[in-house]
Specification:
The chain is mainly alpha-helical and 174 residues long. It has eight helices and no strands. Helix 1 runs antiparallel to helix 2, helix 4 runs parallel beside helix 6 and helix 7 crosses helix 8.
């Protein structure tokens, strides 16, 4: 290992969180077994609901790690990605479904391969546009309002991403 390279510290926050949740479940079971059982059943029901989405995301991550060269990721969503990167981030955010935390592992993996933070922020911001709900929104608020709101959300996503990129540049220059 070169002197300029430093080992990245191990992030154990996931294990700590798991331990805290397990302790809280144990405490709940000890204090009120019926509430503990109801809580565990609700958690299992949620896990059953998100498990297929998690499997798809992990499969996509495996594909990314197996078939996609980090240089390709950097070219499409890295520092020099330009307009193409913004379009990928915004369109990907609009097309993504499910809870936001489901996308965390894959986006973290993309980030570790060189994806810009600003594009990840834009992806999350653009997720607030829900394609299946747009027709209902048009029926309640009209086409003009829906189109303008959608445009402003996309502009807001882009601006948030730009701001993150600017802050990161300033941080890197310190």
């Amino acid at each position: 290992m070169k002197k300029t390279e430093q080992k990245k510290p191990v992030n154990r926050s996931g294990w700590v969180m798991l331990g805290i949740v397990a302790l809280l479940y144990l405490l709940t079971f000890l204090l009120d077994p019926s509430a503990g059982k109801a809580s565990a059943m609700a958690a299992f029901k949620t896990l059953k609901m998100i498990a297929p989405i998690l499997l798809i995301v992990f499969f996509l991550m495996a594909l990314l790690n197996t078939f996609i060269d980090p240089k390709d990721v950097a070219r499409h969503v890295g520092k020099e990605s330009g307009l193409k990167g913004w379009l990928i981030a915004l369109l990907g955010g609009v097309l993504s479904h499910g809870p936001g935390y489901i996308w965390y592992p894959m986006l973290s993996d993309l980030r570790s391969h060189g994806a810009r933070d600003g594009l990840i922020v834009a992806f999350f911001y653009a997720r607030s546009i829900k394609l299946p709900w747009l027709p209902l929104m048009v029926s309640y608020f009209g086409f003009a309002f829906t189109a303008l709101l959608t445009l402003f959300i996309l502009l807001g996503a882009w601006m948030q991403g730009i701001m993150v990129d600017i802050f990161n540049r300033k941080k890197d220059n310190l």
